[in-house]
Fold this sequence. Notes:
By secondary structure, this protein is an alpha/beta fold. The chain is built from eight helices and six strands.
Amino acid sequence: MPASSGSASSLIFASSATVAAVFAAYRIYRWSSGRNREAGDHRVTVSLPPWATEENYFSRTYDTDDEMMALAVELSARNVAEKTGGPFGCAIYKRNLETGCAELVSVGMNRVVPLHNSTLHGETVAIQMAQRKLKNFALSPEEDEGGERRYQYELFTSCEPCAMCLGATLWSGVTRLVCGATKADASAIGFDEGPVFEESYKHLEEAGIEVTRRILQKEAAAVLENYGKIGVIYNAR
């Protein structure tokens, strides 16, 4: 009987210790969860809308400027139709300089309103997605062992960039900027593109970035015109 009583006491003690450990672990979990939620308040999310990841954009082949710009315009139009942002689309490609063929690296579209972030223009989203994918902050040209340039990164945007996005393009490391609609097309429906001048493009060119403009301008401008009739013009001022 004494032995049995001792065993029972030990069992009760062990059970109490287990319960105490469980409650302690729960309190730690609640505390860490709270800390994680607080940490989450200091994080910024940059995401593509679901439809952008479901489409077969990356399985297509791209050879010409028109084909590459067509995707940027398609992204801008789809973004409006799906109500997932503003009328601006962007695509970044890796071009094989020997064959001329291009591989799609990333896509971006204006996400300002849905993600509550004035910096998430099509170009900045595409740049961030490309650099994250490549794990490199610079989309610089790639050379072979002999030092000859083999690949370069090119940014195609459905509209000439605003002041912010021109700066982002300069610092992204891309070798080429190709634009669709013009600053005037965007301004015509009420967007303020900021201090962008011909000298701005000259600065890019002097930095080694080739600039091509007004590729599929009519098609790209049509997306802007349509958005001007149905969408929100979200200038901060």
